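Researcher: Structure prediction, please.
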Amino acid sequence: MAFRRKLAKAAVWLTFAWMAVVAGFIVWAKWAHDNNEHEVPTLIAAVDDSVRTASSQDTGLLQKLVLTSRIESLGDPGATDVLSVVPTVQGAEPFQFMVTDDGGAAIGYRGTSLANDVCVRSVLTPTGTVQTSRASCSVW
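Model: Predicted structure follows.
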């Protein structure tokens, strides 16, 4: 009987320990999510600033991006990947590119060290303006 009592007591303590681990994980996940959300405006600003600066320094950037995309779409194995030509952003990586209906360029960036796994879309219009906002990582 004493062995069963010790076994039952150990089971109760292990259950409490497991519940504490689960509760700790939930608290950590909430903290990580909140921290990530606080970094979203910084990510948007970083992407916007990078695309805006690159566009002002290279007035032919839009044409270069569109041309590179068109050449790449022809399937030439030696074609340059358009994502290697887009402006770089510290804390984010480009993952998607699209030419808009009006001839602009839409670049999708995914946060790496800034707002991890949050996606932002920056649109460089033919008039030279840049519009950056949070976007879905899968639906464009």
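Model: Helices lie at 2-57, 61-73.
Researcher: Thanks, that helps.
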